[in-house]
Amino acid sequence: MRKWVQEMGLGLAAVGRPAYITLGRDEDLGRDRDVAAMRARTWEVLDAAWAAGVRYVDVARSYGRAEEFLAGWLADRGIRPGEIEIGSKWGYEYVGGWRMDAARHEEKDLSAARLRRQLGETRELLGEHLTLYQIHSATVESGVLDDEEVLGELRALRAGGVAVGLSTTGPRQAATIDRAVATGLFDTVQSTWNLLERSAGEALARAHAAGLTVIVKEGVANGRLTSRGAPPALADAARERGVTPDALALAAVLARPWAGIVLSGAATTAQLAENLTASAVTWDDEAEKALAGLAEDAETYWARRAALPWA
């Protein structure tokens, strides 16, 4: 996997399954969320991303049928391995049964047995397109970063030419990032950083300095930093600059010197187009000062995220 510096990628969490925790999905997707409809929407967003020059796509075993939809798109469009980089993740399993009202939508297990099974499933779908395989939502508390069976499997995968990484979650992201760097194993780290949740910033800078590519997820905080939920200060700053709140929020992420790939989680082509304008938005000291007050305590941020409904 090549080193990426301040480029936009596409994450498929919001389009691979019928329900997710992004604000405004009723407006974006309507009621028709059967498999065929979601496949068509996924392909539309992928087409738009490809046309715009996006060359990194992020999926996971738990994103419903996202890997399946992506594999079909790659084959249909005749895209060869190496023409686009694909990162997937293992550890969560989708258990929602394609139901909006499922009691649980995903189940976490960071065991070596699940790694082996899910890697096989991912390779069956994505084959040689798979560039990066990541632990999904690693934490220090889970023990996965000290599990020698898991780490051995990841070392073997890396030796075979697939980069390995991890994604982080929760108010102790920084501790997880530092522990991952200390292993010397990982090529990438994918973490949440946005104008509301900045707690991982210094650790991500350390990871970048250690040679890891930093992938940033949830740059618009599951819709809380878009026009649907933007705090007044962000809405006003975006209006003054003639851009959308999501574009300004993503420009803030792109301005971090440690940011490698910044993911758009767009569910529609219109959202993707707005997100991608972030690359042309200037983030300056005035914006930094005006929006510094949006930062929340990490515990507060993650509690609010956990309360978002699957819709």
From TrEMBL:
Pfam families: Aldo_ket_red
Signal peptide: none
Domain NADP-dependent oxidoreductase: 42-291
Matching SUPFAM superfamilies: NAD(P)-linked oxidoreductase (SSF51430)
The protein's name in its UniProt record: Aldo/keto reductase
